[in-house]
């Protein structure tokens, strides 16, 4: 298995030496500065690759092995194959990456909003902070700030009462922060920042798109891109919905085992794979993560490893330390290590320690929400320990 680290580029505030010191060997990155829907050029990719891989004398080499992500445009999500120009631009980006020998691509198909949290610095019992999804705060946003049309139909009477109480207790600063957290696109998001009016307008464009139609649009996209991916030797990895359920009345189609089975059955190409995100999938108590990993093992090319702790009725959750919470990380890693043993050296599973706690010196610094150095370094060290205990030869190094 290969140890990855998400890096937001030269302006992301984290030097590559920090990645080396954390023990990672593989960089997970993207050209975040390129507008969504615009094709990446080979020159742009090569410049970023050279920045990562031209190793200074005496330093440990790094390799850019995963792209996270080439964003899927909103038009593709709404129109499927009919969004031919946007699909062509996406394919051009994939070709630019393959030309530079970067052949694992992560993407998601979440409409309007990408991964969603209500709080970015929720204090846990250690004094560190974590990201948090509070169902009452989310409902307060949906019902009383966004004022989405017919939103009340998605909530029980008890939910509506709790949301009203939560909203009435919020200050103007609380409201503005909640808007920023939900509507302004979190780091690494593949959706556009939205004002409240623009948010409402975007939701209206999905009024007639249900889960079946959204899934069909994804299948049509994959039918166009996977033949090219096969020729290029590229592996596409679909990230799960986060959280794995409908938000704002929108369909979500990558939330559980049945969802992924339907996608793989429709497009059986081995280029059509998954990013196994234990944190996203783990929010749903019905998801048996080790069983899912075992079923889809041959299609797991990339993995996000983190844990969440579900609260109350299971709709609220916070991001736990990597070996805590509701994810059986040892059981999951046992499956991934067993699969990895079967693979050739060039086809090993790349994983990264996902969202880490903000802790120690990072509490006094400006950090990218979810991506502080120290919390992720702790997570990577813990994951490395489990993997090594399962198989002392499992971890790969860059040569």
* Strand arrangement across the biggest beta sheet: 1-2-3-4-7-8-9-12
* Strand/helix succession: EHEHEHHEEEHHHHHEHEHHEEEHEH
Helix content: 40-55%
Structural class: alpha/beta
Count of alpha and pi helical runs: 14
Average pLDDT number: 95
> Using DSSP, what is the number of strands?
12
- C-alpha Rg (nearest Å): 20 Å
CATH class categorisation of the largest domain: Alpha Beta
Proportion in β-strands: 5-15%
> What is the CATH T-level topology of the largest domain?
TIM Barrel
Q: How would you characterize the largest beta sheet?
A: 8 strands, parallel, barrel
At the fourth level of CATH, the homologous superfamily of the largest domain is Divalent-metal-dependent TIM barrel enzymes
> What is the second-level CATH architecture of the largest domain?
Alpha-Beta Barrel
Euclidean distance between termini CA atoms: 14 Å
EC number: 4.2.1.8
Organism: Paenochrobactrum gallinarii
Catalytic activity: D-mannonate = 2-dehydro-3-deoxy-D-gluconate + H2O
GO molecular function, one term: mannonate dehydratase activity
Explain this structure.
Catalyzes the dehydration of D-mannonate. It comes from Paenochrobactrum gallinarii. The chain is built from 14 helices and twelve strands. The mean pLDDT is about 95. The protein has an eight-stranded parallel barrel with strand order 1-2-3-4-7-8-9-12. The protein folds into two domains: about 1-115 and about 205-390, Alpha-Beta Barrel (TIM Barrel), CATH 3.20.20; about 120-200, no CATH class. The protein is of the alpha/beta class. Helix 10 links the parallel strand 7 (about 235-240) and strand 8. It has helices at about 15-20, 40-55, 75-80, 85-100, 135-145, 155-170, 170-185, 195-205, 210-230, 255-265, 280, 290-295, 330-340, 375-390, and strands at about 1-5, 25-30, 65-70, 105, 120-125, 130-135, 235-240, 270-275, 300-305, 305-310, 315-320, 350-355. The chain starts with a strand and ends in a 9-residue tail after the last helix. Helix 13 crosses helix 14.
């Amino acid at each position: 298995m290969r140890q990855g680290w998400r890096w937001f580029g030269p302006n992301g505030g984290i030097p590559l030496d920090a990645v080396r010191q954390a023990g990672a060997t593989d960089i997970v990155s993207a050209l975040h500065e390129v507008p969504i829907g615009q094709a990446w050029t080979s020159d742009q990719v090569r410049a970023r690759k050279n920045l990562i891989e031209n190793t200074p004398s005496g330093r440990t080499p790094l390799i850019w092995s995963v792209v996270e992500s080439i964003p899927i445009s909103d038009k593709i999500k709404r129109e499927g194959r009919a969004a031919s120009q946007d699909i062509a631009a996406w394919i051009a980006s994939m070709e630019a990456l393959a030309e530079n020998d970067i052949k694992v691509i992560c993407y998601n198909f979440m409409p309007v909003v990408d991964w969603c949290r209500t709080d970015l610095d929720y204090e846990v019992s250690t004094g560190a902070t974590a990201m948090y999804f509070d169902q009452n705060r989310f409902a307060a946003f949906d019902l009383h700030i966004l004022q989405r049309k017919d939103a009340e139909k998605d909530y029980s009477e008890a939910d509506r009462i709790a949301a009203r109480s939560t909203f009435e207790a919020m200050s103007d600063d609380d409201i503005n922060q909640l808007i920023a957290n939900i509507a302004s696109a979190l780091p690494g998001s593949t959706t556009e920042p939205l004002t409240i009016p623009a948010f409402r307008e975007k939701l209206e464009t999905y009024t007639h798109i249900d889960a079946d139609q959204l899934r069909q649009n994804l299948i049509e996209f994959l039918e166009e891109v996977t033949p090219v991916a096969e020729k290029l030797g590229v592996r596409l990895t679909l990230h799960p919905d986060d959280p794995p359920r409908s938000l704002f009345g929108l369909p979500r189609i990558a939330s559980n085992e049945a969802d992924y089975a339907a996608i793989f059955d429709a497009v059986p190409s081995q280029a059509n794979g998954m990013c196994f995100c234990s944190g996203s999938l783990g929010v749903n108590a019905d998801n048996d993560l080790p069983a899912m990993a075992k079923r889809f093992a041959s299609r797991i090319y990339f993995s996000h490893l983190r844990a969440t702790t579900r609260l109350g009725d299971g709709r609220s959750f916070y991001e736990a330390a990597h070996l805590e919470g509701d994810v059986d990380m040892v059981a999951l890693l046992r499956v991934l290590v067993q699969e990895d043993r079967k693979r050739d050296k060039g086809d090993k599973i790349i994983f990264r320690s996902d969202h880490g706690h903000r802790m120690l010196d990072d509490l006094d610094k400006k950090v990218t929400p979810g991506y502080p150095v120290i919390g992720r370094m702790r997570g990577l060290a813990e994951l490395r320990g489990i993997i090594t205990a399962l198989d002392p030869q499992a971890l790969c190094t860059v040569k």
